[in-house]
């Protein structure tokens, strides 16, 4: 794999100096380029330039949650999970893990769906994401909402984009009239970042909504047919691209209440 051709494809599709670029990736596929994760990150940073910002999900796994099947059904109301910004296990891949190792990286202190960023906007996008009572991962003060407000472009390198499209949740977390009842559960965290240490209660979408009621393949087809998700293959690698503003507008204006979740009327707020 010639990674220069992948960078050229991104540049030809509009990624330029000054861009906020969110990258979801699979290093298992990118490894064929012969580049180390930190070398790939360096090329992506060069693509967005000194005026831009490279963003990656730095999703964590908390031992207090138990195994995956337990997390989906377990009552976590009174369990305090420990989020150490620098040390908690990263589950979203080698590229974000290595981006975190850079001395100029900034990591979100929000414990659910945190991100790591390097570049001009990194500090500002993390600034307010713990503010308020029971904030949500993608709510009005979140890093993800900052990215939408600044029309970040989301790119998938070797991943099936709808499965990794975290930024879509800005629509539901920022919608004061979100129609589905009992959408959130409360979670408690101790958040540690060197000398910073607080306990914070936050909101999390109940896992069942994404597990049982999200028609992922149908959502992908909808995004492609509405010219929101654009997929090209270069060097055998599937490269997906979405403009965040265009995505959120599509979700917000969709005629089906609660889209892209497909649920019965009994779950809607009365």
Give an account of the 3D structure.
With 270 residues, the protein is of the alpha/beta class. It has one domain. The chain is 31% helix and 22% strand. It has helices at 3-12, 27-30, 37-48, 68-73, 94-100, 122-126, 143-149, 161-164, 169-173, 207-212, 216-225, 244-252; strands spanning 20-25, 53-57, 80-84, 106-107, 115-119, 153-157, 184-193, 196-205, 230-234, 237-243. It has a 7-stranded mixed sheet with strand order 4-5-2-1-6-10-9, with helices on both faces. Strands 3-7-8 form a 3-stranded mixed sheet. Helix 3 (37-48) crosses helix 5. The protein is globular and about 50 Å long. The N and C termini lie far apart (54 Å). The relative contact order is 0.16.
Task: Describe this protein with a few key phrases.
alpha/beta; three-stranded mixed beta sheet; 12 helices; globular; single chain; seven-stranded mixed beta sheet; 270 residues; 10 strands
Rg to the nearest angstrom?
18 Å
End-to-end Cα distance, whole Å, is 54 Å
**Could you tell me the mean pLDDT?**
95
Low-confidence stretches: none
Helical segment count = 12
Number of spatially distinct domains: 1
Strand content: 15-25%
> What form results from the Cα inertia axes?
globular
* Strands in their spatial order, largest beta sheet: 4-5-2-1-6-10-9
């Amino acid at each position: 794999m010639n990674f220069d051709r992948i960078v050229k494809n991104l540049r030809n599709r509009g990624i330029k100096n000054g861009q906020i670029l969110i990258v979801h990736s699979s290093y298992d596929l990118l490894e064929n380029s012969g580049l180390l994760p930190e070398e790939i990150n360096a090329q992506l940073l060069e693509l967005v330039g000194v005026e831009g910002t490279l963003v990656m999900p730095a999703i964590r796994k908390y031992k207090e949650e138990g195994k995956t099947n337990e997390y989906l059904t377990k009552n976590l109301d009174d369990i305090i999970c420990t989020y150490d910004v620098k040390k908690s296990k990263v589950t979203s891949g080698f590229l974000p893990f290595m981006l975190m190792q850079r001395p100029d990286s900034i990591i979100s202190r929000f414990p659910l769906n945190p991100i790591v960023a390097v570049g001009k906007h990194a500090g500002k996008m993390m600034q307010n994401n713990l503010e308020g009572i029971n904030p949500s991962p993608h709510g009005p003060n979140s890093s993800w909402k900052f990215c939408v407000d600044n029309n970040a472009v989301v790119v998938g390198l070797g991943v099936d984009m709808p499965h990794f499209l975290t930024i879509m949740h800005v629509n539901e977390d920022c919608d004061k009239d979100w129609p589905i009842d009992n959408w959130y559960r409360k979670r408690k965290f101790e958040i540690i970042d060197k000398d910073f240490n607080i306990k914070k209660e936050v909101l999390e979408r109940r896992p069942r909504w994404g597990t049982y009621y999200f028609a992922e393949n149908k959502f992908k087809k909808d995004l492609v047919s509405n010219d929101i998700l654009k997929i090209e293959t270069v060097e055998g690698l599937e490269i997906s691209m979405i403009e965040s503003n265009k995505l959120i507008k599509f979700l917000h204006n969709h005629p089906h209440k609660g889209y892209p979740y497909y649920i019965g009327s009994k779950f809607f707020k009365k």
